Amino acid sequence: MMLNISLTQMEYIVAVDTHRHFVTAAEHCFVTQPTLSMQIKKLEDQLGVTIFDRTKQPIIPTDAGAKIIKQARIILNEVERINDILQEYRDTVAGELKIGIIPTLAPYLVPRFIGNFYKAFQMLS
Known about the structure:
CATH architecture of the domain at 7-89: Orthogonal Bundle
Order of helices and strands: HHHEEHH
Low-confidence stretches: none
Radius of gyration: 22 Å
Shape: elongated
Largest sheet: 2 strands, antiparallel
Distance between the termini: 54 Å
Strand order of the largest sheet: 1-2
Number of helices: 5
Number of strands: 2
Strand content: under 5%
């Protein structure tokens, strides 16, 4: 039997597991709660198992659901690694740089490296 599980469905079950609440998970995923619930129900129907015990508050995964969620987390992490590889091959640097330095030294040290850093990474002004 060939499964057709989407990354989005995996993100939804991981979000529900993380937040233990369908509405909060939906907000985290930027979808409506009915959309999230429908996709999870569709996945459960396709797999033939119940992923979450909806009779308990907070929501908890079933035994089978816990194993499926664990595997979904692994898969989603591996997909993120693909993004990292692509970023590496594009020779781009992205992200946020935070520098911690005491205020009394900042005026003397920051000017020594910020110009070269700015030129090397073509920061937007």
